[in-house]
Amino acid sequence: MVVPMFKLKNNDKSGIGARTGIVSTKNGIIETPAFMPVGTAGTVKGVIPKTLDEIGASVILGNTYHLFLRPGMEVIKKAGSLHKFISWNKPILTDSGGFQIFSLGGNAKVSREGVEFKSHLDGSSFFLTPESVVDIQNILNSDIQMVLDNFAPNPAGYEADRFALDITSLWARRARKRFLQTGSKENMQFGIVQGGLNEKLRSESLEELVEIGFDGYAVGGLSVGESREDFMKIISHIVPDMESDKPRYLMGSGTPEEILYAVEKGIDMFDCVMPTRNARNGSLFTWGGKISIKNEKFKFDMNPIDVECECYTCKNFSRAYLRHLYISREINSSVLNSIHNLFFYLDFMHKVRYSIDSNEFLAFKDRFLFKYREGD
CA-CA distances (angstroms) from residue 63 to 72, 109, 163? Predict the structure, then answer.
């Protein structure tokens, strides 16, 4: 039996919070800081698992809510696990569905017992509890499992944030009890810090989760419309107080600038749909800033997306061809653009880790941002 654990490798000697580490799971290791491509419904859009493996993805994210609705737990159970169903033999983290509760708005009714909602697929009604979400993830057998949480829309007043925090803490306690009773000792369970933009509530949330005792801790409820200043305020306030011997995960935040700021404060894990969503919209990341491949100026441009990039797309195709695919609405536009954007993110994280291990993270950050923002 593999006992999951987190091992710290190096703290950047500049005195900041940036650090490297290794999360060990039954399906392999995750070198941190790490970026997790998002495969909400069991697939990363536009990219097959073999390609994800080839470009260096060590972990992907699935979504409990979506997989529960379709294909359903009976299908996953018959396959044996989510890993076997999607043919991915590396680690998987499954989100609990808390963000989907948030995005459903008035179509989800939250109570102390759980959440009642109508499927976005066919309108049928369901009721999920913290315990049932653990049970679903046990069937998925995901390496890292998130507890069911709740957070208020932004902007929210104190009372709304207070209610959401109380619900999250109550659900976390119940979810942890269920996981310890029924979950595999080879898997990990993370608690989620909530509290909106209120620093006092964020600290209270973290204290309650630490008292319960989880294998890792996530910061949730950000990247939902708050200002950059508020994002930075909450990250700088809460991350240094998170347990240093456990993985720290920032949920749903994924611009390179956000990642660099959060890494500097001590975050270890990230996920975001941005690389593949932007790819489908023709927005491509480069070391010199983002470009929009649909622009007329690329019609005769025979250069790769990024001369510094070693991905399959950049080695074989020109900006002119990729623009042609996008304008022609060819499926390969999304495929090739997604390969490039995901490769950029994974290569970016590799260079972030190298800079921390070399105790040069701040210099790397400054060089990257100067060139990236100049290009933008």
Answer: 12, 20, 24
Whole-number mean pLDDT of the chain?
96
Both 169 and 248 in one domain: the answer is yes
Structural tokens at position 147? 């507890």
Indicate if 232 and 188 belong to the same structural domain: yes
Q: Tell me, yes or no, whether 185 and 318 share the same domain.
A: no
Query: Quick one: average pLDDT of 241-256?
Result: 97
pLDDT digit string, tens, across residues 138-150: 999 999 999 999 9
What's the pLDDT band for 116 if we cut at 50, 70, 90? very high
- Reduced to 3 states (helix: H, G, I; strand: E, B; else coil), residue 77 is helix
Please check whether residues 158 and 17 belong to one and the same domain.
yes
Query: Which domain range does residue 321 map to?
Result: 279-375
CA-to-CA dists, residue 239 to 261, 262, 264, 306, 366, angstroms: 11, 8, 10, 34, 21
Q: What share of the chain is helix, strand, coil (3-state, %, to 5)?
A: 45, 20, 35
Task: Mark whether 36 and 160 lie in a shared domain.
Answer: yes
Examine the fold and report which residue of 272, 307, 329 is the final residue of a domain before the chain moves on: 272
Q: Are 197 and 151 in contact (CB under 8 A)?
A: no
Task: Indicate whether 106 pLDDT > 70.
Answer: no
Written as six digits, the tokens of 83 are 């890993």
Give the pairing type, strands 34-37 and 269-272: parallel
The catalytic site residues sit at 95, 271
